[in-house]
Specification:
The chain has 1053 residues and is an alpha+beta fold. The protein is built from 36 helices and 37 strands. A hairpin with a 4-residue loop joins β5 and β6 (190-191). It is an enzyme of class 6 (ligase).
Length: 1053
């Protein structure tokens, strides 16, 4: 079916019109057709970071999808073949956390009771819960991507490639098992990696306690330790001091006790140490204190808690308190609750036990200071629970040895903005630590290590074929735990059967493997992957600097020795309008679907992209911002297009001609035609250059400029030409220019606003002659990006129009300040500039200036005396103050007293002395202005941009009023026609009806300017009494012109 014809008489609802475009794309299978049309072109590679389908898409996803769509669409129209596959993250804690909440699972034992197979089936059942909603939203946003050929991290092909990648790392000696204190999520019952621990910090109030540890050999003296985690004290084994620090022994008179603490920490005990009743009685180096024994806080294990702190654990091993392989006391379960090893607090969540532990310490006389501290603390980014640090045996991939290579590989890539790649990400790489890739969980890709009980013999499996060959198992079609954990491999060292270790991969390892795993590399598509790696482009949010971007780079560096992307756009975060994080519970943001269905996807896309978020800063999402895109960009653009259609229809109806676009028309001689076409070429050039540099944020402002230039300058100034005022040939030339501008806008901006450009293009298509070599032109998105037409550029014309615009804008400002409508004719405008070329440029477009400003006479002059031009100097006092310091006040006081000639001489020489203080070029800013004599103040008004000066006669002259009344009347008729839903081609009778004795001034103006009225309305208003019986009134309305109210009506002829 053809695209529905544009109905000029109907209001244009952007969101509803987008639905028509989507339907049309479905009918022509637009995305797949575009891929087929581009086969054989060079390949442009794009990697899509996989989201989870367990949640609905939010504004962050809309932003990421928009950026990815813009870049890949532009690559397609720039002559590339761009494969775009959607991907799904289906494993890991995000999925398991949902099931744990649903089934009330509180730890590993609960899963084992129900069976891993049943647990995994529960997980599998929800991984694509919102897939249909995702697909609908992605399509509605205009993003073209392949959902039918998507990849999922749970697919056998993907998981096998992950095994291959891990196997390669294992062969290189980059995998090891270690007992380390790791960030641990009690909500997800699993350790997480160090980079995940940095994803969700919150400001919280925690207890801050100072605890006493009496010395065994001197019970009147206590070592003091400070902590914000009282729950770690039941498993305390040692206290730690720095060997080089100085510690002091003090006597506290009020407590009648001796305390030993660091010399700089007296304020932890006393608000004002100078006023405290204490006496210093000894000094020690930390090295002197080694081996001292103290009375334990609790009798559970006989301040360090080496199971709950990385430094604590390291020091405990270094000092022989623990062996490297020995598990320190860790009396908590998977959910962070105390076990029976700590009977007084058994079953309590560690954070909840803080109060009880403090109470117990107080009862023992060990609690010296009890307070709270507000500080930033890491929380699990999945479950929202506070992280704890816990000693646990985990599997690592070595990162430290390749830090320099990571940094070097990253420097070979382009980041937008670059400062995040060099700064935030670069600094993270420099401090990168070995990566914990194991999770003590169930729903994930199992780590393919089969080991003997003593862990002395370990076999790493890199493929299904290898597992079947070594184990003797056959027909393996699923690699999840419940399908392979029972498989054993005979030992080659006489150690019986090797069993798979229990851990699964961190899901970040899987998403970091997507470049090759989505292709099932190296088992399939080997040549294709190697030819298209690394990706030309990736993009995600700034949070992925410690997530996906990091894991992609680590794995790619280990496996291929290079970065996996060439160009990367990193975005900020989308926040609520109040600057807070978007929250469903707070309801502090509008539903994305409502926004899209109210204002349209194009407006939403443009608002997101034309914001600081594409430069890595955060964006406060405002519904008003989307609405402004419609009113400031899309609506004027649409109105320019509809104006074109209306004029074409008018000329067709009147029989003048049936317009057809001539792409090979000679360059127009009309200045405004050549100017707007040159501006189009500037847009094409800018979009190509900026997209090549991946600077999306520079495009929309330039589009806004061109839409403004098209509507408020080109069409406004050429309305009469387009209506036919200057003859048939000139009208066709103007329409051809307007058509080419509209078509260029569509072709240039199709990647940014895919819906409106498609909608407008479908109506423009009927005016484009058939071209046998054009190929499939059914969609704007099948056309290549336009080439710059160098012959359209004309620096002189662009300069002339720019100067004309300056005169017009300065003079409009005067009219606005004095409440003088542009419809009111004024007598004289004087334009002063010192440069004759400047004046000649403006003078060459005098006709446009007179028409737009509605002035009868214009004087262009460089004569300062004639114009009354004077000079004054002003300064940026902040900048000048740093130079002059104490002399600033003298200059400030004397500057207003400088004569105009002195300031003018400063322009010429670059030197001036103000109150004896010499100043040079750049110290002052010179302003030109016109000094009006008192006798002329009511007659003239002036304005300047410090370069050109204009003086406008602001008196309303009666002989010019007839022109103003005529224009006002024409405007009222045109508004009434629009309200009646009439098209430009509909001829009607215009009737007026005045109260007795009224309207004399208007009737005189109608008679005097009837030819002007006829050219605009194709008729002249007549008295209502002249209406004949068969002429039916369509619409009537009371209007006011020149303070006269009367009835204005339209009747069918």
């Amino acid at each position: 079916m053809p695209f529905p014809a544009h109905d000029l008489s109907a209001p244009f609802n952007f969101a509803q019109e987008e639905e028509k475009v989507i339907q049309y794309w479905r009918e022509i299978d637009a995305f797949k057709t575009s891929l087929k049309l581009s086969e054989g072109r060079p390949e442009y590679t794009f990697y899509d970071g996989p989201p989870f389908a367990t949640g609905l898409p939010h504004y962050g996803h809309l932003l990421a999808g928009t950026i990815k769509d813009i870049v890949t669409r532009h690559a397609h129209v720039s002559g590339y073949h761009v494969t775009r596959r959607f991907g799904w993250d289906t494993h890991g804690l995000p999925v398991e956390h949902e099931i744990d909440k649903k089934l009330g699972i509180t730890g590993r034992d609960d899963v084992m009771k129900m069976g891993i197979d049943k647990y995994n089936e529960e997980c599998r059942a929800i991984v694509m819960r919102y897939a249909s909603e995702w697909r609908a939203t992605v399509e509605r946003m205009g993003r073209w991507i392949d959902f039918d050929n998507d990849y999922k991290t749970l697919n056998l092909s993907f998981m096998e490639s992950v095994w291959w990648a891990f196997g390669e790392l294992f062969k290189k000696g980059l995998v090891y098992r270690g007992l380390k204190v790791m960030p641990y999520s009690t909500g997800c019952f699993s350790p997480i990696s160090n980079f995940e621990a940095g994803l969700n910090y919150k400001d919280v109030n925690d207890p801050a306690v100072t605890v006493a540890f009496p010395l065994v050999d001197d019970r009147t003296t206590s070592l003091l330790a400070w902590t914000t985690t009282p729950w770690t004290l039941p498993s305390n084994l040692a206290l730690c001091v720095h060997p080089e620090y100085t510690y002091i022994k003090i006597y506290d008179q009020e407590r009648d006790q001796n305390f030993i603490l660091h010399e700089g920490l007296l304020r932890t005990l006393y608000k004002d140490p100078k006023k405290a009743k204490v006496k210093k009685i000894g000094t020690f180096k930390g090295s002197d204190m080694k081996g001292w024994r103290y009375v334990p806080l609790f009798e559970y294990f006989t301040e360090r808690a080496p199971a709950f702190g990385e430094d604590d654990h390291r020091i405990a091993i270094a000092n022989g308190i623990l062996t490297p392989e020995e598990m320190p006391p860790c009396p908590i379960d998977d959910a962070g609750r105390f076990t029976s090893e700590v009977p007084d607090f058994a079953g309590q969540y560690v954070k909840d036990a803080d109060k009880g532990i403090q109470k117990a310490l107080k009862a023992k006389g060990r609690l010296v200071v009890q307070s709270t501290l507000n500080h930033s603390y890491p929380f699990c980014w999945r479950s929202g629970t506070p992280l704890i640090y816990r000693a646990i045996p985990v599997w690592f991939v070595r990162v430290s040895p390749v830090v320099d290579q990571l940094v070097a590989n990253n420097k070979e890539t382009r980041w937008v903005p670059q400062n995040i790649g060099d700064g935030r990400f670069g600094n993270w790489l420099i401090n990168a630590r070995d990566w914990n890739i194991s999770r003590n969980r169930f729903w994930g890709t199992p780590i393919p290590l089969w080991a003997s009980e003593d862990m002395e013999e370990i076999v790493c499996i890199g493929s299904v074929e290898e597992l079947e060959r070594l184990s003797g198992a056959t027909g393996i079609t699923d690699l999840h735990r419940d399908k392979i954990d029972h498989i054993t491999i005979p030992s080659q060292q006489g150690k019986g059967q090797l069993k798979r270790i229990e851990e699964v991969f961190d899901c970040w390892f899987e998403s970091g493997s997507m470049p090759y795993a989505q292709q099932h590399y190296p088992f399939e598509n080997k040549e294709l992957f190697e030819q298209t790696f690394p990706a030309d482009f990736v993009s995600e949010g700034i949070d992925q600097t410690r997530g996906w971007f990091y894991t992609l780079l680590v794995l790619s560096t280990h496996l291929f020795g290079r970065a996996p992307w060439k160009n990367l756009i990193v975005t900020g975060l989308v926040l609520a309008a109040d600057g807070k994080k978007m929250s469903k519970s707070l309801r502090n943001y509008p539903d994305p679907n409502i926004i899209i269905n109210t204002y349209g996807a194009d407006a939403t896309r443009m608002f997101l992209v034309n914001s600081p978020i594409v430069r890595g800063d955060n964006l406060r999402f405002r519904e008003e911002g989307v609405r402004e895109v419609v009113s400031r960009v899309l609506l004027p653009w649409l109105n320019a297009f509809r104006f074109f259609l209306a004029q074409v229809a008018l000329h067709r109806k009147t029989g003048d001609f049936d317009f057809r676009y001539n792409p090979h028309a000679p360059v127009s001689n009309n200045v405004m035609d050549r100017w707007i076409l040159a501006r189009c070429q500037s847009l094409i050039k800018l979009v190509r250059e900026e997209m090549d540099a991946y600077r999306l944020y520079t495009i929309i402002p330039r589009l806004l400029d061109l839409v403004d230039e098209l509507t408020n300058w080109y069409i406004r100034f050429n309305r009469a030409r387009l209506k036919g005022s200057d003859g048939r040939e000139d009208t066709i030339e103007a329409l051809n220019t307007l058509f080419e501008t509209l078509l260029t806008l569509c072709r240039t901006m199709s990647s940014y606003t895919p819906f409106l450009t498609e909608n407008i293009y479908q109506s423009l298509r009927e005016f484009i002659p058939e071209d046998a070599v054009a190929g499939d032109t059914r969609s704007i998105h099948f056309l290549l990006f336009p080439e710059v037409k160098e012959e359209y550029f004309d620096a002189v014309i662009e300069r002339q129009v720019r100067r004309m615009q300056t005169v017009i804008e300065l003079t409009r400002n005067i009219r606005e300040r004095h409440n003088l409508s542009l419809k009111t004719p004024l007598r004289e405008l004087l334009v002063y500039h010192k440069d004759e070329e400047w004046l000649e440029d403006a003078k060459s477009l005098q006709r446009y200036i007179q028409s737009e400003l509605n002035v009868r006479d214009i004087i262009f002059t460089s004569d300062e005396q004639l114009a009354g031009v004077r000079y004054r100097a002003v300064a940026d006092w902040g900048v000048l103050g740093r130079k002059l310091r104490k002399d600033l006040a003298r200059v400030k006081n004397a500057l207003p007293n400088l004569s105009s000639d002195e300031v003018k001489n400063y322009i010429e020489t670059g030197k001036i002395t103000v109150d004896g203080i010499p100043l040079v070029e750049g110290d002052l800013t010179v302003q030109r202005y016109i000094e009006l004599p008192e006798s002329h103040e009511g007659q003239y008004a002036t304005h300047t941009d410090n370069d050109v000066v204009v003086r406008l006669d602001i008196q309303v002259h009666q002989e010019l009023m007839g022109e103003w009344i005529t224009r006002e009347l024409i405007q009222r008729v045109q508004k009434l026609r629009k309200k009646a839903g009439l098209q430009a081609t509909d001829d009607v009778l215009v009737l007026h009806e005045f109260e007795s004795g009224d309207g004399e001034e208007l009737l005189f103006a109608i008679e005097e300017h009837k030819e002007t009225i006829r050219r605009s309305l194709r008729t002249v208003p007549v008295d209502a009494s002249q209406k004949e019986g068969h002429q039916i009134v369509i619409i009537e309305e009371e209007v006011e012109v020149a303070e006269t109210r009367f009835m204005l009506s339209l009747a069918k002829l």
